[in-house]
Design brief:
Distance between the termini: 51 Å
Helix content: 40-55%
Number of helices: 35
């Protein structure tokens, strides 16, 4: 079905205006200017990128890397690595230029200079200056052309509080200097006044998230307070100086909280009457029309107009990929036509409400501008209440044509150093070279009717369902979606879940043996590590006698469970996954309160537990089909059967996900399973037990047996009827279990299978070509997320000499900016460690570190819980104790190396091989790490924690563990025995032959 955008009264006028504008932008250029353009390398690069998708990707990746390259030979070698890739068909001129044997050679130097200069020229096209002096020259030139301006400050991502403060100060300085310069500017009636009202000559555009380094929708209140304090300072100063301030819109995750903060702030008495402030709407967002309606009704209530800048939106690729990866609804329209149609709808909405809102229509599409003009003229919208906007360097001809027709045009001018501005440059290049770009289509001389046609929207199928089509064809498994805390309703639900769980604190949880909850001789209190005066619950610990009863119950239940069809077992497991999804909010709260894991990470853990249930249900159905190796006259069937009784010994650091994963893998494979959780997380294991019982696992098949590891754990490991032991924990205990399981006990008729994950000493290498913004954020998350208590956490970062000092400086500042506190607070990024033993052990390691390295940072921590502030050591020897031993806390060793070869050797120089990371933009180094970095899970240009079931199966080798990866295609095989059954189907020389008559 095709929904035609209403062909309204404005259409004829739109077409008429658009044709005039298009004619003005397409006037023939002189022969000499076209010749000059053909000879310019920056134009050649853009033209090649448009015509060759493979080259476009690699070229933009190279441009992204350029800021990190400090010599011509580095530039030359990266040019060859990126553009010499097999996927790239090179134009002859480029192929000739890259045909050098050595990056240090003269041809290599020439290539580096040519391309470096071309990229710099490109950057100058879209970036209005590298400093305030250059920007002032640019805006003075624009004013001569009768164009107004708004200035946006480019730069590194704001990841530290020092950078957030600096962002504010740089804007205050920018406004001051622009206003000073403006005193010498002659008034230009076309842009400085309208309807008898003066319009501020100076306008700046700012991004809300840059005012607070820990800006996060989950911590809406904290983010609002910190951001609002800095915005008030900016708005007051702008008023004193007579400058206007416009707030840009960024990624979708920040949209609702950005609008909420600005609405609240601009109703404050001090700012309510201000009309020199603006906000932004992005038309590519599906909910932008509703946001516009809400803003208009809010402006009616406010009583004083503000500017709303309407743009298409600049993060389409990023938003689409993020939603696909997170299994969230797509926030953006999937095609450009739908965005264009929405843009026109919102343009009409804004202009029809011109008494409440000043419209600023930002586009490079002649039709979009013409539509706005047609509506404005038809409604006689006063000049003050309507202007058109373009980006610097992108809509020059359109802008000139609009000025010549007497409309007010404002140019959005980003400024800043060229190299940190590369991210901005690439967004502009993507926009300019996209197939659907108006500017590109106009350059290609498409027919006028096609260029100016009204956008016709085909109704999208399932447009609001998670976009699985973007996932690779072989990823048939679609995981559970994490909670999106950008949604206010979701945050309220989370608050309610905390209230519900708090009313249940202090209850008693008994073991489940043979389908009955049984009393125990001993109980232990499970405490909240954020505040150890709070008891989460009392847990009954079983005795050795009760462990024996559980073992006998499992033995009795096994024959029946073994015969239960795999499909039936899988369906019970899927039911368990569904129950977890229903109870998600409360399960997260139990994790937050019992083991001190911050809210978002607790929610991710619930997703992982759900994924284990659903993934292993699919897997057992796949394995249950077996494999046939039939030949004429003989059938050969390869099948699996359960092993028997599994003992699961689960850790406290992933109290739901790992306990669930190991347990349900054993159960769905047909084994009777005893779950012995870590003492400190036994309440969450009790909540898992409730779910497995409600899902329908029969009595004796699953049993919950909390107890002391040294007694009950050891008894179950050594029991002759135990077939499989699945363990996650320390190397010391894991090795002991492995040794004990290898000993044949009296009456034991099988060898025990041990699956053990025993930790790591995980390293991240930061290469010379790394994106430092990305690397610092990734290292901070990997090292200090959940206070460094993940098996996969980074405890070493290996940094190449040329960038070592710059990296350490930013790492320390970013870590200083983290919020340390009770895990339940939405602002918390670093919560407590698990208990007093852990706290004291980590403190001992910190003292060892002080003796063998330089202390770069030690943050203070609250007293009322088991807190340790993040600690960073620099100039650490690769062989130091803190470089070699697993600490399991928020302690990071930063090691300096001379080159990439040494970095790999240091990374591989421990007894562990669990996870590792690399931040690099050098293709050959990425390739080398993939083969030589000895880890079970290698993460490139992202953080190294948070493995996802069916996407990043998890597990290591060396002394990090034994067994197949959890959440992967081999995992269930460890709980199964394979059998081959052969039958001779000939009778008296006769056998059915398939295909014969």
């Amino acid at each position: 079905m095709v929904l035609q955008v209403q062909t309204s009264t404005y259409e004829a006028k739109t077409q008429e205006i658009a044709k005039q504008l298009l004619a003005a932008t397409q006037e023939n250029r002189s022969f000499f200017s076209s010749l000059r353009d053909q000879m310019r390398w920056d134009d050649k690069l853009l033209a090649w990128a448009m015509s060759n998708p493979g080259l476009r990707v690699q070229l933009f990746r190279f441009i992204d890397t350029l800021p990190a390259l400090h010599s011509k030979s580095e530039i030359a070698s990266h040019l060859q690595e990126y553009l010499g890739d097999e996927s790239v068909e090179l134009p002859a001129a480029l192929k000739g230029m890259l045909n050098f044997a050595n990056p240090d050679s003269m041809p290599g130097q020439v290539a580096a200079t040519t391309v470096g200069t071309a990229v710099e020229t490109l950057a100058h096209k879209y970036i209005s200056g590298e400093n305030i002096k250059q920007v002032i020259k640019t805006v003075e030139r624009l004013r001569k052309e009768k164009m107004a301006f708004t200035i946006d400050l480019l730069g590194e991502a704001v990841i530290t509080e020092a950078e957030a403060q600096s962002y504010l100060e740089r804007y205050l300085e920018l406004i001051q200097q622009l206003v000073e310069a403006s005193k010498n500017w002659a008034a230009i009636p076309a842009i400085d006044e309208a309807d008898g009202e003066a319009i501020p000559k100076v306008q700046v555009s700012v991004k809300l998230t840059a005012f607070y380094s820990q800006f996060d929708p989950l911590d809406a209140k904290g983010s609002e307070e910190r951001v609002s304090d800095r915005i008030r300072i900016l708005l007051r100063r702008a008023k004193e100086l007579g400058a206007a301030v416009h707030f840009d819109m960024e990624q979708y995750a920040y949209k609702n909280i950005t609008l909420s903060i600005l609405k609240k702030l601009l109703l404050e008495e001090e700012f309510r009457q201000r009309t020199d402030i603006g906000m932004t709407i992005q038309a590519y967002l599906r909910d932008s029309e509703q946001d516009t309606l809400d803003l208009i009704s809010w402006l009616k209530q406010r009583g004083y107009p503000l500017t709303i800048r309407l743009v298409k939106g600049a993060y389409w690729d990023q938003e689409t990929i993020k939603a696909a990866q997170k299994h969230w609804k797509q926030p953006v329209y999937n095609d450009k036509v739908a965005t264009d149609a929405n843009f026109e709808t919102i343009t009409q909405l804004l202009l029809e409400n011109h008494q409440y809102v000043y419209s600023a229509i930002g586009s490079h599409n002649v039709r979009s501008h013409s539509r706005a003009i047609a509506i404005a003229e038809s409604l006689n919208v006063p000049r003050r209440r309507f202007e058109l906007q373009v980006l610097y360097g992108m809509g020059d001809k359109v802008a000139k044509a609009l000025v010549d027709k007497g409309y007010r045009v404002r140019v959005y001018c980003p400024y800043g150093e060229l190299l940190p501005g590369m991210a901005y440059l690439i967004r502009r290049l993507l926009e300019n070279t996209a197939n659907s770009s108006f500017l590109r289509q106009n350059l290609e001389n498409r027919p006028i009717e096609e260029l100016l046609a009204a956008p016709i929207v085909k109704e999208e199928k399932n447009s609001l369902t998670p976009n699985s089509s973007l996932l690779t064809p072989n990823s048939h498994f679609l995981g559970a979606a994490d909670t999106d805390y950008a949604d206010e309703e979701v945050r309220m639900k989370a608050t309610q879940a905390f209230q519900n769980v708090r009313q249940q604190l202090g209850k008693t949880y008994l073991p489940l043996i043979n389908g009955e909850y049984v009393n125990t001789p001993e109980f232990v209190d499970s405490l909240n590590p954020s505040n150890f005066s709070k008891v989460i619950g009392k847990v009954g610990l079983i005795s050795v006698e009760q462990a024996e009863q559980a073992m006998q119950a499992a033995k009795a239940a096994f024959p029946g469970w073994k015969k239960t069809p795999a499909k039936q077992r899988a369906d019970i497991l899927r039911k368990a996954g569904d129950l977890m999804e229903e109870r998600r909010a409360e399960l997260s709260v139990w994790i937050v309160l019992e083991v001190g894991k911050p809210v978002k990470e607790a929610d991710g853990e619930v997703s992982e537990a759900i994924d284990f249930c659903r993934y292993y249900a699919d897997e057992i159905e796949r394995l249950d089909e077996g494999v046939n190796y039939d030949i004429p006259g003989e059938t050969n069937h390869y099948i699996y059967q359960p092993r028997g009784i599994a003992v699961v010994i689960s850790p406290w650091n992933f109290p739901l996900a790992i306990a669930c994963g190991m347990t349900v893998a054993a159960l769905v494979s047909g084994n009777c399973t005893l779950l012995k959780p870590a003492e400190t997380s036994s309440v969450i294991a009790a909540k898992l037990t409730e779910i497995l019982v409600d899902a329908g696992f029969p009595k004796g098949v699953f049993q919950y047996v909390p107890g002391k590891g040294s007694q009950v754990g050891a008894y179950l490991v050594n029991h002759p009827d135990t077939h499989v032991i699945a363990f996650t924990g320390s190397q010391e205990v894991g090795c002991r279990i492995y040794a004990e399981a290898a000993t044949l006990k009296p009456g034991q008729k099988h060898m025990k299978r041990v699956i053990a994950e025993m930790g790591g000493k995980n390293a991240i290498i930061v290469d010379e070509s790394a994106d430092l913004d990305q690397a610092v954020v990734g290292v901070v998350q990997s090292a200090f997320g959940y206070s460094g208590q993940k098996c996969s956490a980074a405890s070493r970062v290996i940094v190449l000499q040329p960038i070592y000092d710059a990296f350490v400086q930013r790492l320390v500042e970013a870590t200083k900016s983290l919020n340390i506190g009770e895990a339940e607070l939405p602002s918390t990024q670093v919560g407590p460690v698990i208990d007093a033993n852990a706290r004291d052990r980590i403190r001992e390691y910190i003292e060892k570190g002080k003796a063998e390295a330089q202390l770069a940072l030690e943050l203070p921590a609250p007293e009322q819980g088991y807190f340790i502030g993040p600690v960073i050591f620099s100039e650490v020897s690769p062989n130091a104790v803190i470089s070699q031993e697993e600490i399991f806390g928020p302690v990071l060793a930063v090691i300096r190396v001379k080159d990439f070869q040494e970095a790999l050797a240091v990374a591989n120089g421990t007894n562990y091989a669990l996870t590792g990371g690399l931040y690099s933009r050098t293709p050959s180094h990425i390739q080398q790490a993939q083969t030589e970095f000895e880890v079970g899970n290698l993460y490139i240009n992202r953080n190294i924690t948070g493995a996802i079931v069916g996407r990043q199966p998890f597990g290591g080798f060396k002394l990090s563990g034994v067994g197949s990866k959890a959440g992967g295609p081999d995992y269930l095989l460890q709980f199964l025995e394979p059998r081959a059954v052969t039958e001779n189907i000939q009778r008296q020389g006769f056998a059915p032959i398939e295909g014969a008559d």
